[in-house]
Amino acid sequence: MDSIESTGIFKHFSNLVDLSSDVIRSSTSECGTSLGAILQIEADIGLWEARMVDRPEAGQLADARRELGFATYAASCGLYRMAFGGVRTFLELSFAAVYFSANELHRRQWVSDRRDFSWSEALDENSGVLSKSFMREFFEHDVEEAAVYAAMSAKAYRHCSQFVHGKLAVTDSLPKDISFSKVALEDWVTTARNAAQAVLFLLYGRFSAELLPLDNGELGATLEQSFSHLKSVRSTLGLP
Q1: How do residues 211-237 score in pLDDT, each as one tens digit?
Q2: Smallest Cα–Cα separation from 191: which of 116, 47, 90, 97?
Q3: Angle formed at CA 218 by CA 214 and CA 219, multiple of 5 degrees
Q4: Are 101 and 176 in contact (CB under 8 A)?
Q5: How far is CA 233 from CA 93, 144, 149, 181, in A?
Q6: Cβ atoms within 10 A of the Cβ of 94, count?
Q7: What sign has the CA pseudo-torsion 214, 220, 222, 227?
Q8: Is the pTM of the predicted complex or chain greater than 0.85?
Q9: At what angle do helices 58-77 and 80-101 cross, to 10 degrees?
Q10: Which of 126, 57, 134, 45 is nearest to 96 (CA)?
Q11: Residue 224: how many CA atoms within 13 Å on its side-chain side?
Q12: DSSP letter at 126?
């Protein structure tokens, strides 16, 4: 019997790997800095995950960060539609982690599969996790800034949903095979960066009072890099 290496199935997938490798070379050559920035934000979210290790929501945040990592890999391989879907899942899991952190009953019902997570509910402008009422209770500083990140989240989620649902207006421009598209990759990078920045702000706003004080280590450097324009961050870090 022929070895598995000589079968048509193995050759088929090996050819796909070769195509993906070619796309990765082009992706890292043309957009390596941008992809690196996404991976850096993923690592920054990991610092918050580490601080949350004893909280029940930590597993959801870990799953969310993993989805962002897989989505980045998919984007670098030319699997753009899958990459957009991964960003949407990343947003849903991240926002769910924060939403359930303030709604223990809902979290338990979600874990036991007796409740679904509602993206629209989590992003509701009056009661969602980036609403003024929510932020005032957990993060009294820079409340007005939350609206900016809520808008970024909503825009990213909607754009990703168009790819998930196969809307021709966005999918028609994607390559029909595994090949590099700078336009598609740059579109994905912009969407992923906005989504990840919004999640990072959400984690800061929700958990800073409980998981800090900050020091001058990695987490402080992360906040300085991403949110040095916020008065609360500058004050906390002792910046002018």
Answers
A1: 665 554 666 667 767 676 777 776 666
A2: 90
A3: 40
A4: no
A5: 25, 14, 16, 38
A6: 29
A7: positive
A8: yes
A9: 170
A10: 57
A11: 14
A12: T
Identify whether the C-beta of residue 68 lies closer than 8 Å to the C-beta of residue 192.
yes
> Which residue did the predictor score with more confidence, 225 or 87?
87
pLDDT band of residue 39 (cuts 50, 70, 90) is very high
Tokens standing for residue 152: 């970024």
Considering the chain, what percentage of its residues have pLDDT values greater than 70?
88
Q: Does the pLDDT at position 240 exceed 90? A: no
- Pairwise CA distance, residues 220 & 172, whole Å: 42
Residue closest to 176 by CA, chosen among 187, 164, 184: 184
Query: Is residue 235 within 8 Å of residue 223, measured between CB atoms?
Result: no
- Using CB atoms within 10 Å of the CB of residue 162, give its burial: 0 to 12 exposed, 13 to 18 middle, 19+ buried: middle
Beta-carbon neighbour count of residue 51 at 10 Å? 17
Residue 89: count of CB within 10 angstroms of its CB: 18
Those residues whose C-beta lies under 8 Å from the C-beta of residue 216, and which sit 6 or more positions away, are 237
